[in-house]
Design a protein that fits this description.
This protein is of the alpha+beta class and 365 residues long. Helices cover 42% and strands 22% of the residues.
């Protein structure tokens, strides 16, 4: 009976989570802030990996109503109307929840690919007029509703990214985006996409390179080098060669991660001061570790124990700070569960291997 109760609890929990996600088969549980018939919306699954659902209808000859919904992931959600399918030259409607909890929505003109080229636009600028723009948080969903007077372009772009922090609502560069196609002549009859959009998710390659190189360098290869020095001493000089190789590989990848991080900061004009400071501290400690080899005292020297203490402490500090900063970077990038789970699983594997060797050393001694 107890097992049945536990299974029933998890089934109900799963049902609640699934039910809370918006789909084209779901009814709109919000009060419409725009002129529209709630039962007449066309609906497309605009971006499956991010949970984007777009509802729209032509209210009159020149007036359209749009509602874009997405899970609330502490990020902005955006829909853009593109003249050519690209980002530059598009008009975007973007909504987010501010740090004080205020739902915020605004229209932006995408004049370029840098943050400084994305500017707040007036609602009546460009080829159409935006009115009744509102972001509505509801449970774990965000609903971005607006009315468009004019003719929307058929080519759409979607994006997610960290919400603005400055008072002028300057928009940070997106962390992921997709493209779609609005075909007003086709109506969705159920919860499937029905072929109305052609979405192509394209995560930022440089951002992923930054995360992967930093993760592999500071949090994977360096721990492997430490493990080689601790558990392979019986195989001399194999342990030393393995240790040095792993440390050099980890340091090189880590430096590559920091370099890509500076490039990202310059391109995106983002505020990641804490993440950057921790990265610089890691780099300094890593450089000191690399140069420490050049001044390593002989084993018979009286100061060798102090050098060992420093080498031990600095190396483990780099690893601890590296792991913490990688998790923090995943949080800043809104990379989601997959990155956290993958990195966590790698750390768990390293921990289990270390535990086995520690127990082996303990029993052998």
């Amino acid at each position: 009976m107890e097992k049945f109760s536990v299974l029933f609890f998890y089934f109900m929990l799963f049902a609640v989570v699934v039910d809370s996600q918006d789909t084209c088969g779901s009814s709109l549980n919000i009060q419409l802030p725009i002129a529209a018939n709630a039962t007449a919306f066309r609906c497309i699954s605009a971006w499956g990996s991010q949970g984007f659902v777009l509802r729209y209808q032509q209210v009159s000859n020149n007036v359209w109503s749009f509602i874009l919904s997405a899970p609330n992931k502490n990020a902005y959600i955006a829909i853009g109307f593109s003249p050519n399918g690209g980002m530059v030259g598009s008009d975007a409607i973007i909504g987010w929840v501010a740090t004080d909890g205020t739902p915020t929505a605004s229209r932006y003109y995408l004049g370029g690919k840098s943050s400084s080229s994305v500017t707040v636009a007036s609602d009546n600028s460009g080829n159409f007029v935006i009115s009744q723009l509102q972001l509505i948080p509801n449970s774990n969903q965000l609903y971005l509703a607006f009315q468009l007077t004019g003719q929307p372009t058929s080519r759409l772009i979607y994006a997610v990214g960290p919400p603005p922090r400055s008072t002028n609502n300057r928009l940070p560069v997106h962390t992921d985006f997709a493209t779609g196609n609005l075909r007003s002549g086709q109506q969705q009859t159920g919860g499937d996409d029905n072929g109305e959009t052609e979405t192509v998710g394209s995560g930022d390659i440089l951002l992923k390179a930054h995360g992967l190189t930093a993760m592999l360098g500071w949090a994977i290869f360096l721990p492997l080098g430490i493990m080689a020095a601790r558990y392979m001493k019986i195989w001399d000089p194999l342990w030393f060669n393995t240790h040095v190789t792993m440390q050099l590989a980890g340091f090189s990848l880590g430096v590559a991660g920091i370099v890509t991080g500076f490039i990202l900061e310059d391109q995106r004009n983002t505020e990641v001061d804490i993440h950057k400071v921790i990265g610089i501290v890691i780099l300094v400690l890593g450089c000191l570790q690399a140069t420490a080899i050049l001044i390593r005292p002989a084993k018979s020297s009286k100061v060798r124990k102090y050098w060992n203490w420093y080498h031990f402490s600095a190396g483990r500090s780099v690893v601890i700070l590296g792991i913490a900063n990688v998790f923090y970077g995943i949080h800043l990038a809104h990379a989601g569960l997959a990155w956290n789970a993958g990195f966590g699983a790698s750390l768990a594997a390293l921990f289990c291997i270390s535990l086995v060797f520690e127990l082996r050393m303990w029993f052998c001694s």
